[in-house]
């Protein structure tokens, strides 16, 4: 045998032995399955989601608050606080008392009227910045969530009618629940020894239950159309700010609307109870509720109301059910944390401190829930109400009554010196609410135009109940530049009208296949009569002085 052949034979005989040694030395790769019942990934999804909602809320504040509640807003904060101080018997130049502050917690108690607009901007910018951190990192801490809640609570109190809706207190409540589930300072997604506490998980489920049950009960108690299954015949047309899909959904046959109403009752009055049953039922509840909220988002512009409800529904899901959203490395980290928790025998002192605080929070939420539960059980149920000034636990509901016909207030002005029958009137077009019949409905959710929303409510009343609408008319005739950011089109931007008025119209969708629809009209409208009578600039200037509103003087600007 040649030497080369012998070398090859020896090498061949050594290879299996060497491979066996390498296999023994190599680490054994174990495939570990993730367990159910932990909420590390749930917290990440929730934190990014609430960061997104907070970001939208503070963007709305940045773009609209100065025009609505600023020093020269439609309902100015200085005027509001003057009335609040009078009602609470707090002298104008004295320091606010603790009793007054607790009745209306807000940073704006200490802000001079000269710095109101600057403070509104600073609050919005700080809120946007902190929200972006949550959205980007997928993690937060107590400090961030406390600041966000203080900022937004301050806006809700001074926001008056512009902030008087269910999604505002819902954001405050869920913002409180967010701060009890995160570490004090750490911004890591997996902070050492700080899993999502059980009290935060169940508090969010309890919130989801109350939201849905409250909405379901207020419907069957509030309007007989929910009982005879006809409410959806009207809802798509008469909701505050319809979108394009609302137009087409309204055209559905009557039996489809009845099925929609039955489905609504099932989701709001039956499905929520699944949240208290074992895991498979809870997962089903979460899936159904999220699908339902997405359908509501698609069929109308309800601000960030439905987005907030999805936030609470996230806690129907644990890490095992959400792992498909994450990378292999992130899933491996959760499995490692689960394994460490199983092996851990001696608990550190911090564990027991957290457990005691969790029990304390649970007792607090239970106590604050008592009036909420009594309200749910009452035949005189009210919706979207707080029973404590900090708005930690609230009662909710939506569309307890459904408007059967749609009316709109349309602002008009004229350059004519004679506002008689021969005058030519031009319309002010708003951002999103119905105006011109050929204008396509908008899509803005989760963003929100507060003035457009309040115009919907104003159409149910008269201008005496809505002084801000008279103030808006005064701003238009005085050429106040703040009007431009509140409306879509102002034909009097460069030249003020000599007279202004508001007309009251009834609106109906143009039926598919009708002449109006074929000509490109989404709506048809019929004049009901005057809403604000024809009024001249001089008269509005006197009203502004009486109300304490600042009159814009273009010649001095």
Give an account of the 3D structure.
By secondary structure, this protein is an alpha+beta fold. It has two domains: 40-395, no CATH class; 406-556, no CATH class. The chain contains 20 helices and eight strands. It has helices at 3-25, 40-69, 77-87, 98-103, 116-137, 142-158, 166-179, 198-222, 232-238, 244-250, 254-269, 279-299, 305-313, 319-322, 328-343, 349-377, 450-458, 467-477, 515-518, 537-547; strands spanning 385-386, 394-395, 406-414, 426-427, 429-430, 487-489, 499-509, 523-536. The protein has a four-stranded antiparallel sheet with strand order 4-3-7-8. The radius of gyration is 29 Å and the shape is globular. It starts with a helix and ends in a 10-residue tail after the last helix. The model has no long low-confidence stretch (mean pLDDT 92).
What features would you highlight for this structure?
globular, 4-stranded antiparallel beta sheet, alpha+beta, 2 domains, two-stranded antiparallel sheet
Total individual domains: 2
Structural class: alpha+beta
Largest sheet: 4 strands, antiparallel
Radius of gyration: 29 Å
Order of helices and strands: HHHHHHHHHHHHHHHHEEEEEHHEEHEH
Question: Strands of the largest sheet, in order across it?
Answer: 4-3-7-8
* Helix content class: 40-55%
Query: What's the β-strand tally?
Result: 8
Mean pLDDT: 92
Terminal residue distance:
108 Å
Low-confidence runs: none
Number of helical segments with 4 or more residues: 20
| DSSP strand content | 5-15%
Structural shape:
globular
């Amino acid at each position: 045998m040649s030497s080369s052949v012998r070398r090859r034979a020896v090498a061949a005989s050594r290879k299996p032995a060497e491979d066996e040694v390498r296999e023994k030395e190599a680490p054994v790769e174990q495939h570990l399955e993730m367990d159910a019942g932990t909420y590390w990934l749930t917290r990440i999804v929730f934190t990014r989601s609430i960061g997104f909602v907070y970001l939208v809320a503070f963007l709305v504040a940045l773009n609209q608050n100065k025009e609505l509640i600023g020093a020269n807003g439609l309902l100015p904060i200085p005027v509001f606080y003057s009335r609040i101080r009078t009602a609470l018997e707090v002298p104008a130049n004295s320091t606010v008392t603790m009793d007054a502050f607790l009745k209306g917690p807000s940073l704006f108690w200490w802000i001079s009227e000269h710095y109101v607009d600057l403070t509104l901007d600073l609050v919005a910018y700080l809120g946007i910045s902190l929200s972006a951190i949550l959205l980007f990192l997928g993690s937060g801490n107590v400090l961030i969530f406390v600041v966000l809640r203080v900022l937004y609570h301050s806006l809700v109190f001074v926001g008056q009618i512009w902030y008087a809706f269910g999604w505002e207190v819902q954001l405050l409540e869920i913002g409180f629940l967010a701060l009890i589930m995160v570490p004090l300072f750490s911004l890591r997604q997996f902070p050492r020894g700080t899993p999502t506490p059980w009290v935060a998980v169940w508090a969010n489920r309890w919130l989801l239950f109350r939201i849905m049950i409250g909405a379901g009960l207020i419907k069957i108690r509030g309007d007989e159309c929910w009982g005879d299954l006809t409410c959806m015949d009207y809802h798509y047309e008469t909701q505050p700010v319809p979108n394009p899909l609302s137009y087409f959904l309204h055209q559905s046959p009557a039996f489809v609307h009845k099925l929609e109403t039955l489905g609504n009752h099932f989701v709001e009055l039956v499905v929520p109870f699944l949240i208290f049953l074992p895991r498979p039922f809870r997962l089903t509840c979460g899936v159904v509720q999220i699908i339902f909220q997405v359908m509501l988002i698609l069929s109308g512009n309800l601000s960030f109301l439905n987005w907030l409800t999805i936030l609470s529904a996230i806690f129907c899901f644990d890490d095992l059910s959400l792992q498909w959203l994450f990378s292999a490395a992130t899933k491996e980290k959760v499995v490692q944390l689960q394994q460490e928790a199983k092996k851990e025998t001696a608990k550190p002192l911090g564990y027991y401190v957290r457990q005691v605080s969790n029990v304390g929070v649970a007792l607090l939420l239970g106590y604050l829930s008592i009036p909420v539960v009594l309200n749910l059980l009452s035949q005189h149920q009210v919706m979207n109400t707080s029973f404590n000034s900090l708005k930690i636990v609230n009662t909710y509901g939506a569309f307890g009554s459904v408007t059967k016909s749609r009316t709109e207030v349309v602002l008009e002005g004229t350059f004519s010196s004679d506002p008689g029958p021969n005058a030519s009137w031009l319309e002010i077009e708003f951002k999103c609410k119905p105006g011109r019949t050929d204008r396509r409905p908008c899509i803005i959710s989760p963003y929100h135009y507060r003035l457009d929303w309040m115009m919907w409510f104003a159409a149910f009343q008269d201008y005496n109940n809505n002084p801000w609408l008279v103030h808006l008319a005064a701003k238009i005739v005085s050429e106040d530049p703040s009007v431009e950011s509140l409306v879509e089109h102002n034909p009097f931007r460069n030249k003020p009208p000599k007279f202004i008025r508001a007309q009251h119209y009834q609106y109906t969708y143009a039926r598919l296949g009708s002449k109006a629809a074929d000509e490109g009209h989404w709506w048809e409208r019929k004049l009901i009569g005057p809403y604000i009578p024809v009024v001249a600039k001089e008269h509005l200037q006197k009203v502004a002085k009486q109300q304490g509103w600042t009159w814009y003087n273009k010649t001095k600007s």
